[in-house]
Amino acid sequence: MFGYIIKRILLAILIIACAVSTMFLMIHAVPGDPVNVMLGPRATPEIKEALRARLHLDQPLMTQLFYFFKGFVFGNFGFDIRSNRPVLDIVLEQLPHTLILVSSALIMSTLGIPIGCYAAIHRNGIFDRVFGIISISIIAMPAIVVGLYMLLFFSVELGLFPVIGAGDSNDWSNYLWHLTLPVLTISIAWIGYISRLVRASMIEVLSQNHVRMARAFGLPEVRVMSRYALRLAVLPTITMMGVSVAFIISSTVITEIIFARPGLGSLLFESVLSRNYPLVMGTVLVSTIFIVAGSTIADLLNSLLDPRSLKEND
Fold first, then answer.
1. 0.85 cut: is pTM over it?
2. What is the distance between the alpha carbons of residues 132 and 90, in angstroms, rounded to a whole number?
3. Which site from 45, 104, 257, 302 is most exposed, i.e. has the minimal number of CB atoms within 10 Å?
4. What single-letter DSSP state applies at residue 228?
5. At what angle do helices 87-109 and 264-273 cross, to 10 degrees?
C-alpha cells in the first residue's frame, strides 16, 4: 500500500508538471505582444523593455519555463502586473471562495448515491422511471444554461435568492444564502449523472453470487445492501467523483462569472483577458494541483475499499 501511495504521488507530480507546461506553451502561442496588451499603447519603449526583462519574456521559451518552475519550488509565483502584489497572495485571497463552492458542489453531488440505490432496489418502478427521465434531462443541460435560468427565475422573478455577489463572509447565513444557486448550478447535473452510475453499478452487484449468498444466509436486507452491495457499487462513483473535480472546477469559471462571485474562476477569466501572464499561470497551477489531488485521493480510496485493485496495479 505504501509503495502504491508513493507511485501515485510521483505520478501526480508528473501530471502537474506536464499540465502546467502545456498551459504555459498555449498562453505564449496566443498572437500579439503581451507587454503591449498589459501596458497599453502609451507606455514608453523603456518601460516595455523593463517589463519584458522582469517577466523573462526576452529569454527563450524553455528558459522562461525554467524560471517559472524555479519560482514555484521556492514559493515565488511572480508579481501581478497591475497591482504589483505577489501572485500567491492574490490567489490565496480568492482560493477560499472557490474551495467552498467546489466542496459544497461535491457534497451536494453525493445525493445521487442514495437516489441511485433506491432506483436500483425499486428497478423499473415509478420512481426509477420518473427520475431516470429527469436525470437524463438535467445531465444534457450545460452549466451556463442552468445558471442563467436559475438566476432569472429564482432571483429576478421570484426574488428568493440574491442576484450577484458572494455575500458577507463574516455572516455565514448570508454567505450560504448567496452560495445556494451557484452550488445548485454546478451540482444538479452531477446528481443526475452519479445517480445513474450508482443505479447501474448497484443492479450489477445485486445479481452477483456473494449478494445472493448473503441473502440465503438470512442476513438483514439493510446489512446486505450496505456491507455487501453498496461497498462495491460505489467504487465507480468514487472514481468519477475524483474525475468530476476537474469538471466542477472548470464549471466554477462560468458560475462565478454568471453570479459575479469572487474566486479562482473569475480571477482566471479577468487575468486571461488582460494577458496577465503571472496571474494566469499562478491560478492555473493552483487549480491543477487541486484537480490532480482529487483524482489521486479517489484512487487511494478505491484501493482502501477494494484491495484487489492494488494487486491489479502491481
1. no
2. 43
3. 45
4. I
5. 130
